Amino acid sequence: MSASVIDFVATEARFGAHNYEPIGVVLSRGEGVWVWDTEGNRYLDCLSAYSAVSQGHCHPKILAAMVEQAHRLTLTSRAFHNDQLAPFYEEIAALTGSHKVLPMNSGAEAVESAIKSVRKWGYEVKGVPDCQAEIIVCANNFHGRTLGIVGFSTDPDTRTHFGPFAPGFKIIPFGDATALAEAITPNTVAFLVEPIQGEAGVILPPAGYFAEVRELCTTNNVMLVLDEIQTGLGRTGKLLAEQHEGIEADVTLLGKALSGGFYPVSAVLSNNDVLGTLRPGQHGSTFGGNPLACAVARAALRVLTEEGMIENAARQGARFLEGLKDIRANTIREVRGRGLMLAVELHPEAGRARRYCEALQSKGILAKDTHEQTIRIAPPLVITSDQVDWALERLATTLTQDFS
Ligand SMILES: *Cc1c(COP(=O)(O)O)cnc(C)c1O
Q1: For 18-70, what is each residue's pLDDT tens digit?
Q2: Active-site residue (options: 37, 120, 142, 152)
Q3: Domain containing 138: what range?
Q4: What global pTM score does this model have?
Q5: Which CATH number fits the domain that encloses residue 44?
Q6: Secondary structure, 3-state, 305-352
Q7: Ligand 1 atom 10: the closest Cα is on which residue?
Q8: CA–CA distance from 322 to each of 119, 336, 394 (Å)?
């Protein structure tokens, strides 16, 4: 690292809360699948800001929409209407087949808003006695970092010393429909689950799981809330990951790529029932649904479909997965994923995944380790075949090294 890089890193460490442990690279520019550090070194971004930059860094059309809107009007609060919110609602509802939309900012806020809404639905529509609503969630979930959410995390780092936590959540294993059937009671209002557990290390459920989940939720009048904040908007090769399972959620949560990485934009999408219970004054956000966010999100959704990014994610994801499976390295325990949401899990004896990510960095690839042994690979959805092959070559040489 050069003096200037060390300076940036040291200054962050001196003033910042140490709630992250970044790879030692200081980025200053991005375009498409590429990012550049302060020294001018170029890297293929295989994290895409945890899938927020699915449309590629600084997509020119999203940038143009953002600049244009920033010149006109940025924030009104929801005390007044603005001319971007209605078209945003129309476009996202048409794209996803939803009836109602609640705009928020961060993903965690969308999750919190969904929890509030399904509880309210439980009391006012399902008839659950007040303050008795139960929400079922899965072990190893990741839904964000608010107090409400970390209270039902099973990761000790996420929870420890942040209590006391809100009651009303039940934790069951992911991928186990029988456990769901056994956990449901007359007071269950919702099952909140990720279609693929991203932060847990790209964990796919067994085939047929979500069909059973859908059936159980319908039979028991339980709202199925799919957190598609990471899996949604093309990441897995379909607009929504639920489409791989042939099901429809009652409530769908979007965030991350909803703005193409330009701005925090999230949304709760639902049938008429769940969001229909919210009345004026009962929920809100100063920035939620602001005209800048709406203009950015509209452009982010438009380029996703107009430029064939979802189909490309399916095509390049299959190529990438195939290529990863072809790498013969005894460091690799398992390769898995769907679309461009991929992971390489290393054998425990291979050493920490972090070392491999650092080795990849020196070869021009930025990837992120998760849970000690897993390297996740999630490039922007605009990646080309040549770029996939370029990445695979470097991954193959890195993974055949041994850092144990
Ligand atoms: C990132 C993420 C969130 C939280 O989003 P923030 O914008 O970081 O609050 C929630 N759920 C899932 C599945 C995520 O990947």
Answers
A1: 999 999 999 999 999 999 999 999 999 999 999 999 999 999 999 999 999 99
A2: 142
A3: 73-306
A4: 0.97
A5: 3.90.1150.10
A6: HHCCHHHHHHHHHHHHHHHHHHCCCCCEEEEEEECCEEEEEECHHHCC
A7: 143
A8: 43, 10, 15
